[in-house]
Amino acid sequence: MRRFAPQAIFCLLSTAYCLLPTAYCHGQEIKTLPKWTCIVYLAGDNFLDWFTQQNLEELREGHGTASYDVRTVVLVDKLDKGGHLYEVRNGYLLELPVEDIDPSWRGKELNTGAPQTLITFATWAVENLPAQNYLLLLGGYGEGWMGMLHDLNDGQGIVDVLSLPELEEALGSIVRAIKKVNGKDKIDILGLDACYLAMVEVLFSIKDYASYVIASENEEALDGWPYGDVLMAFMEDPSMPAPHIASRIADAYIDTTSYSPARLDNILTVAVIDLAAFTEIMPPLGELALTLKSAFGGSPQAVKRFKEVDMLTDSFTVSAHIAGRYIPYSMHYDLGSFLNALRLKFRDNPAINKKAVELQKVLKKVVIKERHQDLPERKLSLAGLTLFSMGAELEGYKDLPFSRNSPWYAFVEERVSTLGGLEKTQK
């Protein structure tokens, strides 16, 4: 890794960038700003420390040519004390003092699990690297609806995790900063390079803050996305629309791996989600939940059918020690697989069939790109989004913004009380 003296870096930034905010403030039109600023936030103060260093090297290689239209800034927290701020430019990682972001950060242990750390960095990046469009890429551990961006040492030696409400808080502040720069009220692309985050519950919390989201239904590879290819998706043609760039990033993640999965929990998955269309999911999902809940009280035959639906549905389970923190199990249905199983097992029930078909149509609009690996013995049919089905922390799930605004929790509660928890047979 090549490093420059702070004075040299200051001169580079002054020459290349510092004129831009001034010109903009004095009337520079938005269309003359650089096309993209990529803001990368890597939570590596955990067992991903080594892989985080690999991510940095990939970023350096991916930004091997000069481009006025694509600029990249990275904040990394690793196992060592403090954080590291880099600008990625012309094949170099230019390390800057983190106190340039906030003077109080000098020599301080950063906490990626705290929303204010993300807010302070990302708003600084937005204001100092103005652009027509923004990518915000968050990389680290993920637990689906239970949180992400684990930090083994929050400064007090305690593990901290960014919860969904905290993520929503951070994104709200970042979007307000973006609006002041280019007038937009959304992050153009939000990349969630962490496990299990392509969930309806997660998207509900962030739906107002981004246009497109890239995320995975399942566990991710330890080294995450191929960061060099992520940057190349912008560098090769910065004028491409955001969904096209997001699609290329999704392809790169699946196509650059030679890993062959042995079971469902090992496959790599990725989806590009249109958050403008996502709001259309809530009404039919709520109606389906109420219809399913009422069916549980119908007959022993209905309960039997639900057990068969459970068996047929492809699902992913979070249950592990993640970054030094034990995670109780949380099982997530692939939403498309679940709807297919419902239609098969309740094909003689017009109400359930109608609601399932309505939801399938909306799901196709929401997930504009879905890629996954297949298993040796069968091809999978995944839809790109998951939904909580059962788990050990129902009280925590009940408190989610999604659960407070959807009847789905009422169905989950009924389903668990009737069918139990871990009786599902492994495929």
The biggest beta sheet reads: 9 strands, mixed
Question: Low-confidence runs (pLDDT<50, min 5 residues)?
Answer: 1-27, 423-427
Helix tally equals 15
Q: What is the domain total for the residues?
A: 2
Do you know the CATH topology of the largest domain? Answer: Rossmann fold
Termini, distance in Å? 45 Å
- Radius of gyration based on Cα positions: 22 Å
| Beta content | 15-25%
Strand line-up in the sheet with most strands: 4-3-2-1-5-8-9-10-13
List SSEs in N-to-C order: HEHEEEHEEEHEHEHHEHHHEEHHEEHHH
Secondary structure: number of strands: 14
User: Percentage of helical residues?
Assistant: 40-55%
Arithmetic mean of pLDDT: 88
- What would you call the shape? globular
The CATH architecture assignment of the largest domain turns out to be 3-Layer(aba) Sandwich
Q: Structural class, judged by helices and strands?
A: alpha/beta
